[in-house]
TrEMBL record:
NAD(+) binds at G11, A12, A13, G14, Q15, I16, G17, N105, Q112, V129, G130, N131. The gene is mdh. It comes from Salinactinospora qingdaonensis. Gene3D superfamilies: Lactate dehydrogenase/glycoside hydrolase, family 4, C-terminal (3.90.110.10), NAD(P)-binding Rossmann-like Domain (3.40.50.720). Its EC number is 1.1.1.37. The keyword Cell inner membrane does not apply. Pfam families: Ldh_1_C (PF02866), Ldh_1_N (PF00056). The keyword NAD applies. The active site is at H187. Residues 6-146 form the Lactate/malate dehydrogenase N-terminal domain. Catalyzes the reversible oxidation of malate to oxaloacetate. This is Malate dehydrogenase. PANTHER family: MALATE DEHYDROGENASE. HAMAP family: Malate_dehydrog_2.
Length: 328
């Protein structure tokens, strides 16, 4: 029998949490042979709601779900964590400047980083979903000096999946016919979805589209602003699609990406593609042997270079802002 994997989820009573937990418990996060212990972290006011979700998880009688525990203490919640999904964050409210937002999130991600450092399993894999995801991941990582920096990641898989769907629609192909799409940079409106290296039935995505105006005026802004469009339409932000992307990210991290393809994830930069070392930025990545590797050697033309640089500059500015606040 397999040893159960401890999965800690923060913001468990939120809307992404509600879309995520049942999929984890059913085996979609780690595969159909891996039992899980769920450890849910919430703020005290939301513990009761999280306990309600825990009751529903019980009521599903998932064969792989070994236990569900609810905590309002980060040290307890991350104790023994093999997978840590950091979903709960402080949203931007009206009139809030970027500095205020980063400071408020520092109050969440610093103690969570410390708790991961103190008690998580040696192999812990951290995925930050809560926004601003890249900088929140950097704050947590900075407070977990004993955990290899590569174990901290932020989510751009939703952006990646959005880009896949938009391109498939434009080309009238199945999403499975598109390989090697990339999201570069920050999970924000500056992100750059790159179709120049994408492969679609033997040609590149850009050549298959052959429509620069669509690329610049529709594809890139549609992907980058999709979150806002969902809020406009649904009256609430992306939840099931965000949960789905978190599942994809961790599943691939643990089980590997398919041969002949790659995906996108925000990982610690080693200086690849001119992205300053130590920034958590989105790259084309493959997963091999349980580790993300940045795909090397891609040629970046001036159109892509300009857009990658804009997003990376934003990440550098966020890092300066959190450094000023003493958070990294
Ligand atoms: P909700 O507001 O529904 O839920 C957030 C939950 O986090 C709440 O239950 C809250 O009590 C909890 N929480 C707050 N502080 C906490 C703490 N210190 N410890 C534990 N729990 C805490 O938000 P939801 O729609 O679930 O979104 C969660 C986060 O995901 C937001 O920051 C959102 O911006 C971000 N997103 C990120 C995406 C990505 O692609 N990276 C896409 C979807 C989403 O917008």
């Amino acid at each position: 029998a397999q040893v159960p994997v401890n999965v800690t989820v923060t913001g468990a009573a939120g809307q992404i949490g509600y879309a995520l937990l049942f999929r984890i418990a059913s085996g979609q996060l780690l595969g159909p042979d891996t039992p899980v212990n769920l450890r849910l972290l919430e703020i005290p006011q939301a513990v009761q709601a999280a306990e309600g979700t825990a009751m529903e998880l019980d009521d599903c009688a998932f064969p792989l779900l070994r236990s569900v525990d609810v905590f309002d203490d980060a040290r307890q919640a991350f104790d023994g964590a093999n997978v840590a999904l950091l979903v709960g964050a402080r949203p931007r409210t009206k009139g809030m400047e970027r500095g205020d937002l980063l400071e408020a999130n520092g109050g969440i991600f610093k103690p969570q980083g410390e708790a991961i450092n103190a008690g998580a399993a040696d192999d812990v894999r951290v995925l930050v979903v809560g926004n601003p995801a890249n900088s929140n991941a950097l704050i947590a990582q900075a407070h977990a000096p004993d955990v290899p920096a590569e174990q901290f990641t932020a989510m751009t898989r939703l952006d990646h999946n959005r880009a896949l769907s938009q391109l498939a629609k434009k080309l009238n192909v199945q999403v499975s016919e598109i390989k090697k799409l990339t999201i570069w940079g920050n999970h924000s409106a500056t992100q750059y979805p790159d179709i120049f290296h994408a492969e679609v039935n033997g040609t590149t995505g850009a050549a298959a589209v052959n429509d620069q105006a669509w690329l610049e005026n529709e594809f890139i802004p549609t992907v980058a602003k999709r979150g806002a469009a969902i809020i406009e339409a649904r009256g609430a932000s992306s939840a099931a699609s965000a949960a789905n992307a978190a599942i994809d990210h961790v599943y691939d991290w643990v089980n590997g990406t398919p041969e002949g393809d790659w995906t996108s994830a925000a990982v610690m930069s080693d200086g690849s593609y001119g992205v300053p070392e130590g920034l958590i930025s989105s790259f084309p990545v493959v997963s091999r042997g349980g580790q993300w590797e940045i795909v090397q050697g891609l040629e970046i033309d001036s159109f892509s270079r300009e857009r990658i640089d804009v997003s990376v500059k934003e990440l550098s500015e966020e890092r300066e802002a959190i450094a000023k606040l003493g958070l990294v």
